[in-house]
Amino acid sequence: TLSIANGTTSIERLALDVGGGSVTLSGTAGQTLDLAAQFSALPAALANGFSPGLDAVGTLSGTAGLTGPPAAPDVRFNAQLAGIETSQTRQAGLGPLAVDAAGSYTIAGGVVLDQATLTGDKVSGKATGTLNPNGASDFALDLISSGPSLPLTVGSAESPVKIEIQSLSAKVAGESTRARLDVSAILPSIVTSPARVDGLALALHSDAFDLKNRAGPVSGTVSVDKVGLDNPVIAPLIAGKVTAAVSGRLTADLFAIDSGSLKSDALNSQVAGQVSLRDGAIDLNLKADAPSSALPAAARGMLGERAEISATLKRDPNGSINIGGLKLTSGALTADGQASLADNKVAADIKGALSDISLLSKDAKGAIAFALNAQGPASAPDLSLTVDSERLLVAAREITGLKLTATGKADAANPAANVQLTGNVAGQALQGSAVLATADGKSAINGLLLSLGKNRISGDLALDEKFVPVGTIALDLPDIGPLAALALE
Fold first, then answer.
1. CA distances (Å), origin 92, targets 47, 48, 89, 145
2. Integer Cα distance of 269 and 287 in angstroms
3. pLDDT per residue as tens digits for the range 397-430
4. Which range has highest mean pLDDT (140-144, 234-238, 275-279)?
5. Where are the domains positioned within the chain?
6. Among 145, 298, 454, 473, which is least packed, fewest CB within 10 Å?
C-alpha cells in the first residue's frame, strides 16, 4: 500500500517486478527517510543499458536500508551477487563469480565494508574497512588464485598477453589527500609474443597519495627470476635475476621519474624524466653500463672490459621518437650522435673513434675515426659510412691518409652500395672501388678494383641468394708485401 499524509509518504510492502526479479519496499519518505528494501534475483543485465559493452549476466539479491535526510542519507546494505560475468571477466577467463558484501555508505563517511568476499572457480578474495574519498580511509583488499595461479589473457586477439596471478594485495590508510598506499602482487609468469617473464614480484608504496586526484609520491620495486627473450643481442644483458626500482611522483596525467634503475647480472642502468599518461609523450634521460662479454661478439674486439652508454629518449604524442646526446665509451672506443624516427622515416648521425687499432690486430698501431649517417624510410634508408685515419703502422709499413667511404641503400630486397678507398701505403698510392647493384632480384658487385703501386685486383662478381660471390677476379700482384698491410697483418 501507498499513502501520503503531512508531506510524508508511507509505503508498506510495495512489490515491483524488475526485469524478472523483484523489489519489495517498505517505510516512510518525507523530510527524512526510513526505508527498507528487499530485492531478489534482479538481473545484472539491467546495468548494460548504463554501461555499453559491459554485457553483464547474473543476479543480485539482498537488502538495503535508507535513513536520514534525503540529501545525505545513511545507507545500509547486505547484498549477494551470483553467477556474475561481464565482457571483461570473460576475456580474462575468470568464469562465473559470486560476491557477498555487507556494510554502509554515507557522503561524509564513504563506504564502510563490514565484510566482502569474492568466490569463483579460479579466484577468491576479501575486502574490509573504510574507503572515503572525502576523509579518512582504512581499507584492505586481498585476492588470491584458487589454484597454483590464476591465468588471465588481456590485450587483443592479434597480440595477446597471458598473465598468471598468484596473489594481489592493496592497503589504503589515512586522509584521502595524504593516504598511505601499499600494493603488492606475485605473478608466476607473463607471456607475450616476443618474451616470457617468470617469477615476477611487484611492490608499490606511497606515503602521501591523493586518492581523489590520483596524485602523489610513488616508489616501487619489481623483481623477476628469469626473462626469456628471443633476441640474441638483448638476451645476454637481462640474463639471471632482474630487479627494477623507481621513485617519482604521479599525477592524473603525468608520471615524473626522479630516479629509476634496472639491474641484472650484466646490466646496470638508470633512468630519470617523465612519462605522460594523457598522450603517451616520453622525455627520459638514460644511462647504462654492461660488461663487453654480454654484447654482440662482432663488437667485442673494439671494446674495453665494460661499455657505458648515455642518451636522452623523447617520444611526442604522435609517436615520433628522438634519441639525442647519445654517448658510448668503452676502452679505446668512443662514439656520439643522435637518431630519430618519425612518420616511419629514420634519421641518424653517429661519429666515433677507435684510439688503439691494435685491438683489431696486434700487429697494427694507430687510430681511426668513423662516421655513419642514415636517412629515409625505416625499411630501406640511405646510408653513408666514412672511415679514415691520418696514420697507421701495420707490419712495419706506414699507411697515411686512409679513407674509406661507402654510400648505399639498406634495402634487404634490393641492396645497393658504392664503395671508395684511397690512401698511401709505404709511399705507394692506394685506390679502390666497387659497386653493389641489384636488378630483377639478383645482386652483383660490379667494377671491383683495388690498386696499390703496381699491384692490381679487378673483376665483376655475381651474388647468389646467400650473398656468396661467383665470378672471375683478375690478379696482377708483382709486390704482394704492401697488400698485407691492408689486411692489418
1. 20, 19, 5, 13
2. 5
3. 899 999 999 999 988 888 899 999 999 998 899 9
4. 140-144
5. 363-371+380-489
6. 298
